[in-house]
Design goal:
This protein has about 525 residues and is an alpha+beta fold. The chain contains 14 helices and 21 strands. The chain has helices at about 50-60, 110-120, 140, 175-180, 250-260, 275-280, 310-315, 320-325, 355-365, 385-400, 410-420, 440-445, 460-470, 475-490, and strands at about 35-40, 65-70, 75, 80-85, 90-95, 155-160, 165-170, 195, 200, 215, 225-230, 240-250, 265, 285-295, 330, 370-380, 400-405, 425-430, 495-505, 510-515, 530.
């Protein structure tokens, strides 16, 4: 789960930082809708997203409580205020006045509370269920395997009145306001439910949201999705009154349609055209770092990889520039948190992420590194070429055998890792944030109880720093503690940073402005046709 962009061009990434008013009046007229090519989206329920194209659609349909500015700082959108108590444990949300869903229903505190309860209830099997674990009452709704939930609603959510609700966390968390920018925390209208707590089967195919655009035509899965500006959303009205999102199974076909004038924008330029896009489109493209981190996870529980010197040697044997070259400006990673995240620093990996074959070979020999290495990667992704390139470098610089082992199903592979089966070897993995905080990378990937800790990393000091950061009095204090925790990763190297991704969108001469959001989506609110 990672992505990257390149930077031949200086790009201003715009977000709606003037979200103080409710849009009003009729949508603007233009010479036909703006046509945007995207990949094929899956389910469009905010709490069950599983791909960036679904997230692109949903981001147009819903307005979050808070969004992110150009520095990654949260600011209120659907919320008028999000205020913690002195301990950062009880948060009070006050909604803006005058908001409505696309069907005219007012957006109320219950719209949020009911949606969150649906997502947090284990039998509903929502992919974003884990994001509600910080709220009191989650454990009763999510018992251990084999047990039955003893509650259907989060005890930590309380509606005060139509515009105000409170959130009580199990423990203080200074970054909770930023966490509320995640799609999982969007509201749902009454029309979403067949009965209390039971979702209508058809709703995820064409959701009714509170965002800048509403669906006016969706058709069958894979058909174009026609959107029209919604006057009742928080923030200024979008410049493009109508947008058509055109799904493509093959992004290369979308790119060719852009060149032929049949599309106005492609949300992602295909990898094999990233190095020619400037010439192809006469400079009409935008690039911005994505919240995606590609790395090699090392099974630290495996005896021949347990010595940090072995892991350091492997890292120092990798030429990150060469691995990233020719791939549209992907950014070599020498840190464990992408640069767009508040608190991220350059070069935190230190010398371990600098190419040094001689030192790598010496360390590897001293630590008794294995004679053969395997890097397992999933085939559903553009990974084979660069994984094989890394294998060639390890073989040459460490004088070992190396095999790039494809695996068809990533879930099957990860299930084997949970059982500590060493034959999977080094793992090509990626991670993208759920919300804009260092914790969203450090907690899941490296903490002892992390949901994506596939290296088996265990460090009590690291876990203690994360726990202290969660209880910090301010986001700034928390960041300082997260940075100390990241420094420990540079010493232990449970994973080897490879690259950060960027997202590249291309557009036609018809467009005056195209920008990407901090999540890597085409920002429909600032999309401006000529």
């Amino acid at each position: 789960m990672t992505r990257v962009r390149l930077g031949l061009l200086s790009v201003v990434v715009l977000t709606a930082t003037t979200a103080g008013l409710i849009a009003c009046g009729d949508p603007p007229e233009s010479a036909g809708p703006v046509r945007i090519g995207i990949g094929t989206p899956g389910e469009l329920l905010p709490t069950n997203l599983n791909d960036p194209d679904s997230a692109q659609v949903v981001s147009a349909l819903f307005a979050p409580l808070v969004d992110l500015d150009r520095q990654g700082r949260p600011y209120e959108v659907a919320a008028a205020s999000v205020v913690p108590d002195e301990s950062n444990r009880v948060w009070t949300v006050t909604l803006r006045e005058g908001m409505s869903f696309h069907d005219g229903e007012p957006v109320t505190a219950e719209s949020f509370v009911d949606a969150w309860n649906y997502a947090a209830y284990q039998p509903n099997r929502q992919r974003a269920n884990h994001l509600f674990a910080r709220i009191e009452g989650y454990a009763a709704m999510n018992p251990p395997p084999g047990a039955t939930p003893t509650a259907q609603r989060l005890s930590g959510l309380a509606v005060v009145n139509e515009r105000v609700f409170t959130i009580t966390l199990t423990e203080p968390f200074a970054h909770f306001r930023a966490m509320l920018s995640a799609p999982a925390f969007y509201p749902l209208p009454a029309a979403a439910y067949a009965s209390p707590g039971v979702l209508r089967e058809e709703f995820p195919r064409a959701p009714i949201g509170n965002g800048p655009y509403r669906i006016v035509a969706a058709g069958e899965p894979g058909d174009p999705i026609r959107l029209r500006a919604h006057p009742g959303h928080p923030g200024p009205g979008p410049a493009a009154g109508e947008v058509v999102l055109v799904p493509y199974r093959d992004l290369s076909a979308a790119y060719e349609d852009l060149l032929a004038g049949e599309l106005d924008v492609v949300g992602q330029v295909p990898a094999d055209r990233l190095d020619t896009v400037a010439r192809d489109l006469d400079g009409r493209y935008v690039r911005h770092p994505a919240p995606v981190f590609q790395f090699l996870a090392i099974p630290t529980y495996q005896s021949d990889l347990a010595d940090p010197r072995v892991r350091r040697a492997i890292s120092m044997a990798i030429d990150r520039e060469r691995v990233s070259a020719g791939r549209g400006g992907q950014l070599p990673a020498r840190a464990f948190v992408p640069p767009l995240v508040p608190g991220a620093r350059d070069g935190t990996c230190g010398d371990a992420c600098e190419l040094d074959p001689d030192t790598a070979r010496r360390l590897y020999a001293e630590a008794g590194g294995p004679d053969r290495l395997t890097i397992t990667y999933n085939t559903a992704g553009d990974h084979r070429e660069w994984v094989e390139a890394i294998c060639d470098q390890l073989a040459a610089h460490l004088q070992v055998g190396c095999t790039a082992a494809p695996e068809h199903s990533l879930p099957d592979l990860l299930a084997r890792v949970h059982y500590d089966q060493a034959e999977v070897g080094l793992l090509r993995l990626g991670w993208a944030m759920d919300y804009p905080s260092m914790e969203s990378y450090l907690g899941p990937v490296y903490s002892t109880t992390g949901s994506a800790n596939y290296s088996g990393y265990r460090n009590a000091e690291f876990d203690a720093l994360l726990a202290t950061a969660a209880n910090a009095g301010s986001p700034e204090e928390a960041i300082a503690l997260y940075q100390r925790a990241e420094d420990l990763l540079a010493e232990d190297l449970p994973v080897i940073p490879i690259r950060f991704e960027q997202r590249t969108a291309g557009y036609s001469e018809r467009m005056a402005q195209v920008a990407l959001t901090r999540w890597g989506h085409v920002d429909l609110t600032t999309l401006e046709p000529r």
